[in-house]
Amino acid sequence: MRNPILAISLVLCLGIWCGFAPSTAMVGSTKELLELETLTLELINQYREKKGMGELKSIPYMQELAREHSLKMAQGARAFGHRGWEERADLIFENIEVEMVAENVAFNKGYDDPADKVFDGWIKSPSHKENILNEDFDITGMGVSKSDDGVYYFTQIFASYLE
Fold first, then answer.
1. What is the secondary structure of 70-132 as a DSSP string?
2. What number of other Cβ atoms are within 10 A of residue 11's Cβ?
3. pTM score
4. In angstroms, rounded to a whole number, what is the distance separating the alpha carbons of residues 158 and 134?
């Protein structure tokens, strides 16, 4: 029996939120988005290392769930936030032997360094920082997407293997 401790972070809005609804067209190359995912996870793992913590290992299944959520937000098919979190969490519990999961989301626009801005915002937010520094979490999935009007959407899912 699983222990579904779902630590859902508060929504963090980076950049300016003006009630826009991104269209379904995507811009930004796959290479750019993959690089942002890698960079954001590197920043988080470097921060954890400075705090004497272990690295979060990227799990492809969790990464795909995070990417799908970011893509839906970028396409306007899902509002910015944690909608669908219970379904994503259930899928993780059903497919990976984990005991707890959590999620951070963010968006920003107009920065040359969107990964740095998301990382800084998450570290300044107590609930997001708590997920990043949770010693129980050892695996993750990072997903980034970009809307046609240049808004980057980030989703990071955290989990801890069942012991």
1. HHHHHHTSS-SSSTTHHHHHHHHHHHS-EEEEEEEEEEE-S-S-HHHHHHHHHHHSHHHHHHH
2. 17
3. 0.82
4. 9
Q: Which tokens sit at 21? A: 């609804």
- Bridge partners of 140? 58, 158
Which amino acid would we find at residue 20? F
Q: Which run of H or E residues covers position 40?
A: helix 30-50
pLDDT digits (tens, 9 = 90+) for 1-26: 343 333 333 233 332 222 223 333 33
Q: What is the DSSP letter of 147?
A: B
Q: Which pair of structure tokens corresponds to residue 32?
A: 């750019």
Going by C-alpha positions, the residue among 68, 142, 135, 50 that lies closest to residue 100 is: 135
Question: What crossing angle do the helices spanning 114-124 and 30-50 adopt, rounded to 10°?
Answer: 40
Among 106, 153, 156, CA closest to 131: 156
For 71-122, the pLDDT digits (tens) are 999 999 786 678 878 999 999 999 999 999 999 999 999 999 999 999 999 9
